[in-house]
Amino acid sequence: MATLYEKWHKQAHPPVFREGSSVPPEQLLQAIWQRQRIRRSDLRASDGRRAAILHPGFLNLEAGPDFRRALVQMGNAKPFECDIEVDVLSNGWRQHGHDTNPAFGSVGLHVVWRAGAKGPSGLPVIELRNQLDAPIDQLATALGQAATSTPQNVRGRCSAPLRDLPGEGVADLLGQAARARLEAKASSLGAVA
Question: Which InterPro entries does this chain map to (predicted)?
Fold first, then answer.
């Protein structure tokens, strides 16, 4: 019999992934990728090449690929910087129109739960379902409650200096930065005209 707390907790924190579901939601896969809850020491692309993720990239909350500026090494090749797209199934690449969207031109790695024949041609694909560091239901529970925090190792350079600023200080700083960028843009446009 569930305690009052267990009932409340279940209502307040519904599971991100239900056992028995055939595929987890994309947001859970993004959280797994961002926190690198994968077997990093033996990560393989679907073509068998060893993949080293030197940096998973920065989560992109705007239009375009899910992660920007990742650092990846495939096999013995030189590491390269690229964007990363996360989809539940590899056919999501075409279904979502990434194949015709120029915003996805810098994607160098497609991360999916389950790979198939309809993914992007020429891009390495990492299939997560057999390469996690824990069972998916455990990751769903652990990451579902921490989905809003960004791991320390993937925070941007501004994170530490801005952390201790009060809200109005951050707003003021962002206003100053916007003004400086606008003035620089106006100056460069004036030089062209």
Answer: DUF2851
